[in-house]
Amino acid sequence: MSSTEQGTSSAAPAEPTTAPESAAAPEVPESFYYVHGKDKVVHKVSAGALQHSALIHGMISNLGYTEEQAKANPFPFENIDGDILQMVVDWCNQHKGKPTPPEDTNLPKQKEKLFDLVLAVNYLEIKELLTYCCKQVAMMVKGKSPEEIREIWMIPTDAEDEAAEKEAKKRAGKEAAGETAAAAGDAK
Amino acid sequence: MPIPILSLLTSDIQYALNCMEIGDLIAFSLCSKRTKHLAKSSNRKIHSICAEFDTGSSIAIQQQDDELFFDFDDSGTELKRRNGVEVWRKPEFTQSDWVAHFLSIFNKSMIHVLYIENIEISHLDSIKQIIPKFNRLEIGDLSSDSVAKMAFFKLAPIAVEHVVVHKNVFDYGNDVSKFLTQNLKSVFFFDFDNPFKLELNDLLKAKIENLTIQTANITEQELNRFLKIWMKSNHSFYRPKYIKLFLTKEINREDVLRGIKYYSGSHNCQLNRADGKTLLISIRARSVILEFQ
């Protein structure tokens, strides 16, 4: 597992976190990159591990950073909680250079974080992990009745949906009216 | 801890729905209109949906290697699955709504098989309302004669493809013609214990396109007379395309074809009519197949 250290996205971290050593030492020196989430904790992750993320992989391909530059400019993911990013980094490290198995026993177990994890994984475009997470989401309602599913997945009733839709329409109407009034004021 | 699944991206929700078992997906679809729409959009593939009306009513969702059973009435549905029997209530749903819901979420245009067993005759009209379209009608052998007959006349015309009757309902001579003169696509009358008594007139009046009877009781002489009349009926329309009769006793091929000019093959023989129509006949020990071309 990677260790972490507080850092900022604007300044280079003094001693960034170290990615776990893989069991087999790489033959050529591996390049490392740095990412941080909302909590600004910087994680050092190998390029091999980051290949799981189509988003980061694309960013790396486009930037052509040297290790020093990468160190000085961690990728900021301000929309991802620190602990969630940690889970993602751990998963990427565990599956570095390995084909992902059909059933992943190394998946984070924290169900309460699952929702945020799905959002983060989707954003980072880590397809395999997203599939596992969604499987876990599906498992939450295995064998449950419609009423139980409604509670577990916080599904609004039709009446609640209709009320929310009305409210949204009303708000949109008010906003449109406000914009029209402002435009009329500008014209005068 | 609950998670607000509907706040996820649609693609993520669809990933999750794709991982769900059919029973869970159906439960999800019943939560609200939005979830029904999402379940439908998941395009989950199933083999077929069948309905059975007996003392109760049930729906079977058939997949390649599994089957889910729902006993349903106007107050709710009972689902039998691994963890026992569950009752799902949907007070606003009638039986028609349940059927429409199942068809809709699996993007099926109709019930694959409607199976009728011993029900009240008065129930037939409501079944017609509940299941307005189905591919195949099956009338079970435990149905009373009156139910079987009425089910045939009321429901067979709605069947898109096939009708299977698992009992001999031809009590009287007139009955046979009434059944066989229906303009239906494909009918299979099946009763081993009570063979169907057929005569020349029954075959002449038949209007079912694809007719199979197992087992039928007809003599070589009646078959021979039918073939002779068919040969003489130039330019007349005969609706059946295929008739297969499994017979109660072995028949003599020579007696069936006596006095008829035909072209012979290994198992088949061919009759050519003056108007260009042909009839392929296959006669085995206990079966006769007539293919009209």
UniProtKB/TrEMBL annotation, chain A:
All copies of domain SKP1 component POZ, residue ranges: 38-96
SUPFAM superfamilies according to UniProt: POZ domain (SSF54695), Skp1 dimerisation domain-like (SSF81382)
Keyword Transmembrane helix carried by entry: no
This protein's UniProt keywords: Ubl conjugation pathway
InterPro entries: SKP1, SKP1-like, SKP1-like_dim_sf, SKP1/BTB/POZ_sf, Skp1_comp_dimer, Skp1_comp_POZ
UniProt entry tagged with the keyword Metal-binding: no
Pathway membership, UniProt: Protein modification; protein ubiquitination
Protein name: Skp1-related protein
Organism: Caenorhabditis nigoni
Species classification: Eukaryota, Metazoa, Ecdysozoa, Nematoda, Chromadorea
Gene behind the chain: Cnig_chr_III.g8742
From TrEMBL, chain B:
Pfam families: F-box, FBA_2
Xref: InterPro entries: F-box_dom, F-box_Sdz-33, Zygotic_Embryogenesis-Asso
Domain Sdz-33 F-box: 177-234
Domain F-box: 14-46
Domain of life: Eukaryota
This protein's name: Uncharacterized protein
Originating species: Caenorhabditis nigoni
Gene it is expressed from: Cnig_chr_V.g21604
